[in-house]
Amino acid sequence: MLIRELLEINFMYGPTIPISTYINFLYIHHNFTIRTHKWMYIKSINRLFYKKEYSDLENLFFTF
After folding, report:
1. pTM of the model
2. Would you say 10 and 17 are in contact if contact means Cβ atoms under 8 Å apart?
């Protein structure tokens, strides 16, 4: 969705916006999502390997 809007902006303004801006945006967005979700991966792996009992609040966080 967002990429299509960026491409529409690029078609409106011509070749003033280079392709590298899209690549940089995707790279930054990808790193941001990995950083924000890394703790969830770690906690779910810990739950798989150590079979620890978690509270209801922690199980609620695992669903997202």
Report:
1. 0.21
2. yes
Q: What six digits make up the tokens of 61?
A: 């966080």
Cα separations in angstroms, 4 against 1, 7, 22, 30, 41: 5, 5, 11, 17, 30
Sequence ranges of the domains in the chain? 2-10+19-62
Q: State the 10-residue block means of pLDDT for the chain, 64 residues long.
A: 64 60 65 63 65 60 56
List b or e across 36-62, with b for residues whose CB sees 16 or more CB atoms inside 10 angstroms.
Answer: eeeeeeeeeeeeeeeeeeeeeeeeeee
Give the pLDDT score at 11: 62
